[in-house]
Amino acid sequence: MLELKETNPDVYNRFSSGLFVIRRGDRFWAGLPSDLVIEQALMRTIKTTGGLTRGRGMEEKQRTRWLLAMPACADINESMQELTGATYSTSGQHKDLFVARKERDHKDTYEIFQYLNDYNPFVSEEGALHSVATDMTASASCNPHEARKSEKLSWTNDGTKAFDFVFRRKEQIERMGLKQLVVDGEKLKIDLSFSFRGC
């Protein structure tokens, strides 16, 4: 296939112009490789009602009879559609372009917008960090967002070895999950997952 352009230019031109695909409809982007179409069509008819896997068996004589009966079944199917006036067809448009789908998408978007207006997760004290996941507002001492701006990372650039570096309490970053509450002299860690549980 890599040398197809030189060995068989006619076939190469046909491949390049899109003739290697099968189009089962007039819609855009409906071209599928032939092996995929054969697999999809064949496997669908084998697996659905009336197919080989629905009580017929998979022996050679059953497969042959089933394959030879398919053209007759197609004629019967077409005749039944003409008799009942019911036809199976697909639309040329994508399902997302229908008016009903557009109206539903607009309605859903409006509902989300209204919800975010009523329960805005970003309304908090001026400059305070606010967790959208837990709906908790951090205290002023919570500072992970300022780590790169401060001197907390300066030890990485001054040549100090990692094992020789001393971590000082005042240089530690305080996260929201590490908040501690002192009750009667006992430090209690706040579990942020409690905000999701019903008490």
Attribute tags:
two-stranded antiparallel sheet; mainly alpha; 5 helices; 199 residues; two-stranded antiparallel ribbon
Describe what you observe in this structure:
This protein has 199 residues and is mostly helical. It has five helices and four strands, in the order ααββαααββ. It is elongated, with a radius of gyration of 34 Å.
Q: What is the topological layout?
A:
Blueprint: H1 4-7, H2 9-16, E1 21-23, E2 31-33, H3 34-47, H4 60-84, H5 99-118, E3 180-183, E4 186-189
Antiparallel strand pairs: 1-2, 3-4
Concise synopsis of the structure shown:
The protein is mostly helical and 199 residues long. It has helices spanning 4-7, 9-16, 34-47, 60-84, 99-118; strands at 21-23, 31-33, 180-183, 186-189.
**How much helicity do the residues have?**
25-40%
Largest sheet: 2 strands, antiparallel
**Separation of termini?**
67 Å
Count of separate DSSP helical elements: 5
Report strand order across the widest sheet: 1-2
Strand content: 5-15%
The low-confidence parts are none
The number of strands is 4
Q: What gyration radius follows from the Cα positions, in whole Å?
A: 34 Å
Q: Strand pairing plus helix content: what structural class? A: mainly alpha
Listing every helix as H and every strand as E from the N terminus to the C terminus, the arrangement reads HHEEHHHEE
Please tell me the overall pLDDT: 75
Tally the structural domains.
3
